[in-house]
């Protein structure tokens, strides 16, 4: 399945324990043109049969295409072998160079590969995977420790074989993942630095449908990736604010149609997000009236 610029327009971000198959199908019904899985460990795909079987089971559904599998790691051989376990059921592989969590720091992957000393490794990961896999390989990054070097790294990733680049324009912090607004000026700088044939995706600062237009106008990005806002409003891309009961029932119906692809705890988490978002919207509307 082709991943052209139109496919990259509205992307549902990879979210830990929340980018499950039923949720991906739901957001696709309401305008998402591409969805990502949560970040997966290639080491576990190779060594943990239950882990592999679960993720194989939630990939390949005809209602879930195109889909990109996101992987993390710092060893090209492990990444390639892990990707090959899933590549026949997805349409692209994304390398996570943005994870800010402590386990990424301890394992030296994700956003902790953005320092200049690791750039040769990062370029090797992209070039090795893009040369070895039958699907396109992309990169999701955050700002480099010196943000002014982010466009330089992005350009190197593009020349190394990244089919598209997503920038979450915040720096890496294990304790403050969302500290302050994303600095979208760096997305614009990356778009200007990278070969125009390589799409650049903007991630950050989208809370409403109107924010999407402002983001694209400010950055010149080829597409938008949205994460946490979609958890509350999975209909964002369609410019719809859903009734929380109706959207919860729709999500749960998808869960029933795809058994064993989501745990009850994750389903409960999604329903809570839908309800809390509506409560937030209603409270703000009441404050505006008062």
Give the overall silhouette.
globular
Class in CATH?
Alpha Beta
> Percentage of helical residues?
40-55%
Gyration radius, rounded? 18 Å
Structural class: alpha/beta
Q: Tell me the name of the CATH homologous superfamily.
A: Aldolase class I
- Major sheet: arrangement of strands: 1-2-3-4-5-6-7-8
For the residues shown, what is the average pLDDT?
93
Which stretches are low in confidence, meaning pLDDT under 50 for 5 or more residues running?
285-290
CATH topology: TIM Barrel
What is the count of β-strands? Answer: 8
- The number of helices is 12
Q: Report the sheet-strand fraction.
A: 5-15%
The CATH architecture term is Alpha-Beta Barrel
Largest sheet: 8 strands, parallel, barrel
Helix and strand pattern? EHEHHEHEHHEHEHEHEHHH
Summarize the structure.
The chain is of the alpha/beta class. It has twelve helices and eight strands.
């Amino acid at each position: 399945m082709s991943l052209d610029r139109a496919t990259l327009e509205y992307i549902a971000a990879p979210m830990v324990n929340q980018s499950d198959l039923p949720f991906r199908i739901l957001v696709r019904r309401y305008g998402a043109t591409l969805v990502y899985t949560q970040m997966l460990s290639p080491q576990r795909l190779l060594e943990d049969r239950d882990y592999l079987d679960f993720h194989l089971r939630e990939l390949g559904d005809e209602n879930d295409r195109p889909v990109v599998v996101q992987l993390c790691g710092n060893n090209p051989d492990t990444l390639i072998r892990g990707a090959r376990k899933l590549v026949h059921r997805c349409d692209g592989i994304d390398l996570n160079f943005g994870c800010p969590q402590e386990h990424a720091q301890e394992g030296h992957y994700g956003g902790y590969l953005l320092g200049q000393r690791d750039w040769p490794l990062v370029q090797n990961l992209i070039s090795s995977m893009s040369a070895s896999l039958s699907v396109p390989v992309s990169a999701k990054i955050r700002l480099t420790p010196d943000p002014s070097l982010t466009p330089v790294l992005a350009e190197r990733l593009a020349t190394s074989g990244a089919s598209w680049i997503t920038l979450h324009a915040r720096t890496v912090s294990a304790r403050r993942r969302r500290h302050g607004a994303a600095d979208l000026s760096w997305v614009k700088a990356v778009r200007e630095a990278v070969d125009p044939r390589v799409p650049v995706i903007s991630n950050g600062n989208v809370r409403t449908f109107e924010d999407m237009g402002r983001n694209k106008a400010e950055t010149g990005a080829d597409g938008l990736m949205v994460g946490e806002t979609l958890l509350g409003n999975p209909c964002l891309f369609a410019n719809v604010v859903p009734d929380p009961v109706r959207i919860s029932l729709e999500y749960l119906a998808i869960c029933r149609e795809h058994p064993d692809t989501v745990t009850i705890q994750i389903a409960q988490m999604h329903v809570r997000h839908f309800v809390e978002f509506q409560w937030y919207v209603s409270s703000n509307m009441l404050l505006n009236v008062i």
